[in-house]
Amino acid sequence: MSAILVGEALVGEGNEIAHIDLLIGPKNGPVGAAFASALASQTAGHSNLLAVLEPNLICKPATVMITKVTIKGAKQAVQMFGPAQFAVAKAVADSVADGVIPEDKAEEWVIVCGVFIHWEAEDDGKIFQYNYEATKQAIASAVKGKPTIGEITAKKDGAKHPFSGQ
Question: pTM of the full predicted structure?
Fold first, then answer.
């Protein structure tokens, strides 16, 4: 295994759209250092938090969620600490249960997961569903080494980024 596995996924639509960027790796490597730094480096509007299935029940591999945008109010904070937090934790736990993340790595690895919550998001159900799906996809891509360099070079000239304005 590489010291750092990288995954990304975009799922959904509207203001509830989910974009997940994540790193997976051993606690004693660079991802472990990033994990610890994220928990120890809180700043206004960027409250990093552990992904939990419910209070007092973290997922494993232990996962720290980092905000990809500045949290600007209580509503957005509650969405991060509610449906998004549960979605990420559930996706991690399900990835272990499904064998995507090997069970014997659940204590050895950690995850750093960047989460986007739009400041005008309204539907907590969609926030949960889109973040759950995006996290599962990003984990699977990271663990499987997807996309491969062959897939990237084959698709690069026809790629259409949904927010590129082109």
Answer: 0.95
